[in-house]
Amino acid sequence: MKEPICVAMIIQRYYPHVGGAERQLAAVAPLLEAQGVKIHVITQRNNANLKPFEVIDGVPVHRLPMLGPKAAASLIFTLVALPLLRRLRPHLIHAHGLFSPATTAVAAKRLFGIPIVAKVMRGGSLGDLTHLRRETLGEQRIAAIGRGVDTFITISREIDEELAEIGVLSDRRQFIPNGVDVERFSPLSADQKRDLRVSLGLPDGPIAIFTGRLDPEKRVDHLISIWPVVRKNHPEALLLLLGTGSEEAKLKQLAGAGVQFLGRVEDVAPYLQAADLFVLPSATEGLSNALLEALAAGLPTVATEIGGASDVIEHGSSGWLIPPDDVPALQEGILTLLADADRRNCLGHRGRERVVEHYALPATASHLRELYDHLINGR
What we know:
By secondary structure, the chain is of the alpha/beta class. It has two domains: 5-179 and 360-377, Glycogen Phosphorylase B (Rossmann fold), CATH 3.40.50; 190-358, Glycogen Phosphorylase B (Rossmann fold), CATH 3.40.50. It contains 15 helices and 14 strands. The chain has helices at residues 20-34, 70-88, 100-112, 128-134, 138-148, 157-165, 190-200, 220-233, 248-254, 269-274, 289-296, 309-312, 327-338, 341-358, 361-377, and strands spanning 5-11, 37-45, 53-56, 59-65, 92-96, 116-119, 151-154, 173-175, 207-211, 238-242, 259-263, 277-280, 301-304, 320-322. α8 (220-233) links the parallel β9 (207-211) and β10 (238-242). The longest helix is centred in the N-terminal third of the chain and has 19 residues, at 70-88.
């Protein structure tokens, strides 16, 4: 057993808010604990109904106030977090994102000498660095974070290249992609799938599924807009949308026949196992946890060629990649795969093989522990 260490995880939001970043942290936490890593989560308390402190699945969660306009709220979060970090005395801070988590971590390093790793959540036109550049004093903040962070965790080649462009040397960039529980998310036999559909109240026809936030960057409106055409070719086709978000009401108004909203679902695995096709039409992603879960479940996948998707999927071999915001390509990909069961089976099988080999959750936890040890021992 390795020597126990304490890591403060600073993340903008955490449970009960459910998104990819939150689910990834919650999934890797017990594996890190098994390797001797004691975690404290430090996050925002932007809802008065949330408790300032609670323990969730064995992990202490500290919620700090976010009050007033954005800049002021971020400053208040940092000012309240610093005394807490001084009291917790973690061996290391792991910042999830380059906004208030990284800003707070850099301030704590200056005051207390705590080493920092920072995970860049997204790249591209809506990514962390692009967003920071649009903020007041954005370039100065990027420079400060670039100097203060000991190691940046990258989850895609896109993000790695963006960090290289701002001068972060390769020895300060560590590729540790998100991981997925490949045992929990696993394919079923044809008979098991039929039985599962009955238990979930799902029909026998073709089922496509999206899981994630119903927010603008996910481009679920594109998916809904083409569904009437899909139904003309496959009259019984059903589109399942799992998740909630800012566009939920608007999307429900746009949706026609064959589109079903299931809202927030605590366990998406059975729905993935019961479906025939996973679709992720996002305009921006880091490395989508929903994508990894679908691939692990053996689902053939149509996804936009952004972020980590092009690292995981080889077009036509382990999935189907399309350009972002290309609605005709989205439609063509869905129609092509729904019409060809053999191709779907082949893509699903190879997609799962790829995820099992390179994106299994225990490997993610092991790589994180190795990185933590390197930074702590190098102080």
